[in-house]
Automatic annotation (TrEMBL):
<dbReference type="InterPro" id="IPR001701">
    <property type="entry name" value="Glyco_hydro_9"/>
</dbReference>
<dbReference type="InterPro" id="IPR008928">
    <property type="entry name" value="6-hairpin_glycosidase_sf"/>
</dbReference>
<dbReference type="GO" id="GO:0008810">
    <property type="term" value="F:cellulase activity"/>
</dbReference>
<feature type="domain" description="Glycoside hydrolase family 9">
    <location>
        <begin position="7"/>
        <end position="84"/>
    </location>
</feature>
<dbReference type="GO" id="GO:0030245">
    <property type="term" value="P:cellulose catabolic process"/>
</dbReference>
<keyword id="KW-0136">Cellulose degradation</keyword>
<keyword id="KW-0119">Carbohydrate metabolism</keyword>
<comment type="similarity">
    <text>Belongs to the glycosyl hydrolase 9 (cellulase E) family.</text>
</comment>
<dbReference type="Pfam" id="PF00759">
    <property type="entry name" value="Glyco_hydro_9"/>
</dbReference>
<protein>
    <recommendedName>
        <fullName>cellulase</fullName>
        <ecNumber>3.2.1.4</ecNumber>
    </recommendedName>
</protein>
<dbReference type="InterPro" id="IPR012341">
    <property type="entry name" value="6hp_glycosidase-like_sf"/>
</dbReference>
<keyword id="KW-0624">Polysaccharide degradation</keyword>
<keyword id="KW-0326">Glycosidase</keyword>
<keyword id="KW-0378">Hydrolase</keyword>
Amino acid sequence: MAILHDYGDTLLKSILFFEGQRSGRLPSTQCLTWRKDSALSDGFDKGVDLTGGYYDASVNVKFNFPMAFSTTMLVWGVLEYGKTKGPI
């Protein structure tokens, strides 16, 4: 018995997850309407602008390299195997 996977739905939910992890000033096109701008004054007391980036593991620490790796792997998977999985 073949198991069918909805790769389009998986990709959509993955992108939505990453969108929910954004930090800083959010764009007006933000799909998660309950999310608002966050951490806009990070680094202010030290004269450093630390706004933007992504949160990791539900904490208030931003890890850019793990997020960059995860995003790269998602995109690489679409580029490498997108045609074999059908339309998204």
